Amino acid sequence: MPTAVPTPDPNAEVLSRCLPPLDLIAAQVRDALAEDVGTGDLTAGLLPAEATARAEVITREDAVLCGRAWFDEVFRQLDPEVSVDWQARDGESVRAGQRLCTLAGRLRPLLTGERTALNCLQLLSGTATRARRYADAVAGLPVRILDTRKTLPGLRRQQKYAVVCGGCDNHRMGLFDAILIKENHISAAGSISAAIAAARRLTEDLTVGIPVEIEVESLAGLREALEAGVEQVLLDNFDLPELRRAVELTAGRARLEASGGISHERLRMIAETGVDAISIGGLTKHVEAVDLSMRLVTPSV
């Protein structure tokens, strides 16, 4: 069976910075185990308490691996003596049939944690795999592919980490770390200019700079935003000719982000218009888990 050959990982530092804090990962795993194990694993109770075994996890399809920290934490909480030996890293491309890791320890916790651990790994690997497809589509172009807040409830930190594992970038984490003025905000403020002015008043007393971005739906809206001096503009559902014209009008005065109805098939054409970034909700809201399997290889009862 093929196994990964370890190679230097230039992205290790980036992934380390994006990995959620270990206490958050532990809390997320506790919640996941609680919903599956509840008051106890009834089926595992059929097995001898001291029986031990070895197991392996393989992928049944090509993918980008993501989620090792959550997988490891499942077994750490169930039995710290369970060992996990990884043959692939987060962010690494793996091939169908490849062994991802081997486990060894008491049989009961191995089987109790199997489903929760695989759920974490297959979901995040699915997000990372999708992100890699989008990153590959614009390879060689000076554009960033960004995720959005369209994440699964309660799983935002995990999914945004997976996006980075796949080679794309994070937009704001939530409503607290950046200002994005959208259609309803503009409507409530009265105009694009008024909304930008209100954002400036809100942020002028902050000691840490908060990014301000505004969404526009037309070239006229873009002109108004540029006249107001905004630094980032989201171009919502612009077609290709409009995107090219927007880049010409802006002439580097603001960073431009294309968004809305972005498909994989059109991605490179959109990137070639010269926009600085493209945000894609489908990176995280369209979930297709990777097919993984865990099998005992040396049970001992």
UniProtKB/TrEMBL annotation:
It holds the Pfam family QRPTase_C. The keyword Glycosyltransferase applies. Residues 41-125 form the Quinolinate phosphoribosyl transferase N-terminal domain. It catalyses: nicotinate beta-D-ribonucleotide + CO2 + diphosphate = quinolinate + 5-phospho-alpha-D-ribose 1-diphosphate + 2 H(+). Its EC number is 2.4.2.19. GO terms for biological process: NAD+ biosynthetic process; quinolinate catabolic process. GO terms for cellular component: cytoplasm. Pathway: Cofactor biosynthesis; NAD(+) biosynthesis; nicotinate D-ribonucleotide from quinolinate: step 1/1. Keywords: Glycosyltransferase, Pyridine nucleotide biosynthesis, Transferase. The keyword Glycosyltransferase applies. Residues 128-295 form the Quinolinate phosphoribosyl transferase C-terminal domain. GO terms for molecular function: nicotinate-nucleotide diphosphorylase (carboxylating) activity. Belongs to the NadC/ModD family. NCBIfam families: nadC. Involved in the catabolism of quinolinic acid (QA). Hexamer formed by 3 homodimers. This is Probable nicotinate-nucleotide pyrophosphorylase [carboxylating].
